[in-house]
Amino acid sequence: MRRHQKTATILSVLAMGLGQLYNRQFIKGILLLCVEIMGGYYFLQRLPHAVWGLVTLGDTPTKLVKVGKRYKNVVGDHSVNLLIGGLVILILFGLFVTLYVMSVKDANRTGKLRDEGKSPASFKETVHFVTDKRFPQLLLTLPAISVLFLTIMPILMAILLAFTNYSAPEHIPPAKLVDWVGFQTFIDLLQLKTWSHTFYGVFIWTVIWAVIATVTTYFGGLLVALLIDQKGIRFKGMWRSIFIIPYAIPQLISLLVMRNLFNGQFGPINQYLGYFGIGKLPWLTDPFWAKVTVIIVNMWVGIPVSMVLILGVLTAIPKDMYEAAEVDGASAFQKLRVITLPFVFFATTPILITQFAGNINNFNVIFLLTNGDPVKGDYQYAGSTDLLVTWLYKLTLNNNKYNFASAIGIIIFVIVASLSIWSYRRSKSYKEEDMIQ
Amino acid sequence: MSSMKSRNIFRLSVSYVLLTLIAICAIYPAAWVLFSSLRPGSSLMSETLIPRNPTLIHFKELFTSPSFQFGRWYWNTLKIATLSMLLSTLLTTLSMYALSRFRFRGRKTLLTTMLVLGMFPGFMSMVAIYILLLQLDLLDTHAALILVYSSGSVLGGFIVKGFYDTIPRSLDEAARIDGASHLTIFWRIMLPLSRPMLTYIGLTTFTGAWVDFIFARLVLRSKENWTLAVGMWDMVATFQNSNFTMFAAGSVLIAVPIMILFAFLQKFLVQGLTAGASKG
Questions:
Q1: Most CB atoms within 10 A, among A48, A219, A317, A326?
Q2: Tell me, what's the pLDDT at A208?
């Protein structure tokens, strides 16, 4: 009774496409068989080497070997190439296996149809089925592939790197090998005196920075929005347009400009201070003042965004609430305290959390303005205003300490992700996603 | 009653003073750069804010000076930004349309995965992308940069999904009943409707690529391949005081196109910002 179903499934398990051929779906069968042959050949050759490479990261370093009378440079294993190559082949293999499973399922299903006396779908029907019922998956294929290889794979690899000793000067291929070291990098980062001192210092500053930066821009924006929104203020549109200018200038430009404005020797800010008889301030060169400068500049960059947001919320407050309050004889301050502020806080809390997370990763303001400087002598490759991200960037680009950079990246991710998931789960748009429509 | 009136006048005048002060702070850096770019000489130091005898020489110099390849950088940036814009608009629209209009198995998982992936700092994958490009010999090429920008923009496409969410379902259901295929619906109904959204996505990626410094500096190594962002950063980092007016002229040339775009896009940007707030 279930003859076709059984045979087709077994044939399909033996080789992709056989089941389909048995089911008289010739074009589909031949296509799958081609994939099977090419894939099988490819993976038979590559997979064992890829797994070996991933597990051992190579075992022969590059060295000089005496051949006859001369020394010859014999190229050994390149650990990082092995790591990437292995990862790529494993991902491809995963895709291959998924296709395999799907083809077995398909043969099984079609066999069952034949047992029930229905004729199997023709190729044309299959194509129609895919473009009709599987349309979303079809659309997602191209973006998914690009994300898989350019986002997911790099992240996987970065995570893996944190568990190796890939760093200058001892372990840089092709001259030297890289090895798996387990959690050693994290342990070093948190406990080895030279690294942990920098890590905790930079970490604490990152948190302080994120709190101050978020609070100052938020309340600055609130203040400006309330100023504009007051009864009796004229040219509201004009004020708004002027205040939004800092947001319209590309950050790259405005921050580099600020760097010049605050220049200790020649910058106009110190020049003006001079006119008022105040001495020049070391805006960018003193550890304390540099921190003040980045916070001030960040306010300049960030307040417009908060202002726009809060102005939007203010217009959404129902007017009759104010009217009712006026009837009850509430003063302007009472109206602000009882109606406006609670409403604004309620509507903007999720954004506050995203902004906080964003500030932890606020690369631009720090890197472009101070470059993390002024240099701090007892820090490992970091300066007084460096955040975790800018430190990570320097470790990668200038110092080739890839394993430490990756470990820091993972730590940042854990912090930001827990914050974001927490706030996302609280948001209505997550809970009621399908109800909006 | 008159005391209340005078208090009101006092409140308003204080507000106007504050507003004016804030306005000066907001405008000053921009004005300062603009005037600096017109100032003769090259130093950062100046006696007055507004130059006494303004000149356009620095703008000319930017394109003729042998040590800065400003024209070349402008062209590189334009090329990279335009191609990233096209590619990422395509990828984002396709994927967000699928995620918004269709209900299929694994959809919610996919959305959560995207959200989580978006939380990895770009810097995290940066390490790997750098090594990857190094091994693939793609460092210092523009193609690498375009691919990185485009694939990165897919994850940030939630705003597009939100847009498609607001188009009533009944519209495509009616078309389905009339026998239109999904592709026809997408092409004939959805794309024309989403023109404002496409503009928004296209232009934000364009500006993103136009000013991106982080990946550009990571990927582009040789001076003739640089983009404007890397070039400008280098100008400030290495020649701080000696070439300031030229830097200012360059800044004006970079910022002006973006500010013009911004003026057009303001409405969308504000909507995009507040979308999260009202849903919250």
A1: A317
A2: 94
**Residue B179 burial by Cβ neighbours in a 10 Å radius (0-12, 13-18, 19+):** exposed
Would you say B128 and A154 are in contact if contact means Cβ atoms under 8 Å apart? yes
What is the distance in angstroms between the Cα of B78 and the nearest Cα belonging to chain A?
15
Q: CATH for A184-434, among 1.25.40.10, 3.30.70.2860, 1.10.3720.10, 3.40.630.30?
A: 1.10.3720.10
Substitution target in A139, A326, A366 with the highest count of B β-carbons within 10 Å is: A139
Query: In Å, how far is B173's CA from the nearest CA of chain A?
Result: 14
How far apart CA A288 and CA A285 sit, in angstroms, is 9
Interface of A with B in 149-178 (CB under 8 A): 149-158, 161
Cα atoms in the 13 Å half-sphere on the side-chain side of A359 = 26
User: Is residue B65 within 8 angstroms of chain A, CB to CB?
Assistant: no
- Does A227 touch chain B if contact means CB atoms closer than 8 Å? yes
Tens-digit pLDDT profile for residues B208-247 = 888 888 888 888 888 888 888 888 888 877 765 567 888 8
Q: What is the mean pLDDT of residues B182-203?
A: 82
Using the predicted structure, report yes or no on whether residue B104 has a pLDDT greater than 60: yes
Give the residue from chain A lying closest to B49, CA to CA: A268
Q: How far is A148 from A413, CA to CA, in rounded Å? A: 19
Any residues with CB less than 8 A from the CB of A218 and at least 6 apart, and which?
A306, A348, A352, A355
DSSP for B161-225? Answer: HHHHHHS-HHHHHHHHHTT--HHHIIIIIIHHHTHHHHHHHHHHHHHHHHH--HHHHHH--SGGG
Nearest of A313, A301, A338 to residue A214 by alpha carbon: A301
Instruction: Nearest by CB to B26, from A155, A161, A245: name it.
Output: A245
Domain boundaries, chain B: 2-57, 69-276
> What is the 3 state secondary structure string of chain A?
CCHHHHHHHHHHHHCCCHHHHHCCCHHHHHHHHHHHHHHHHHHHHHHHHHHHHHHHCCCCCCEEEEECCEEEEECCCCHHHHHHHHHHHHHHHHHHHHHHHHHHHHHHHHHHHHHCCCCCCCHHHHHHHHHHHCHHHHHHHHHHHHHHHHHHHHHHHHHHHCCECCCCCCCCCCCCCCCECCCHHHHHHHHCHHHHHHHHHHHHHHHHHHHHHHHHHHHHHHHHHHHHHCCCCCCHHHHHHHHHHHHHCCHHHHHHHHHHHCCCCCCHHHHHHHHCCCCCCCCCCCHHHHHHHHHHHHHHHHHHHHHHHHHHHHHHCCHHHHHHHHHCCCCHHHHHHHHHHHHHHHHHHHHHHHHHHHHHCCHHHHHHHCCCCCECCCCCCCECCCCHHHHHHHHHHCCCCHHHHHHHHHHHHHHHHHHHHHHHHHCHHHHCHHHCC
Per-residue confidence (pLDDT) for residue A437, from 0 to 100: 31
Report domain extents, chain A. 3-163, 184-434
CA distance B9 to chain A (A): 10
Instruction: Specify the pTM.
Output: 0.80
Amino acid at A247: Y
Distance CA B193, CA B172 (A): 12
Residues composing chain B: 280
Fold (topology level) of B69-276: MetI-like fold (1.10.3720)
How sure is the predictor about A214, in pLDDT bands with cuts at 50, 70 and 90?
A: very high
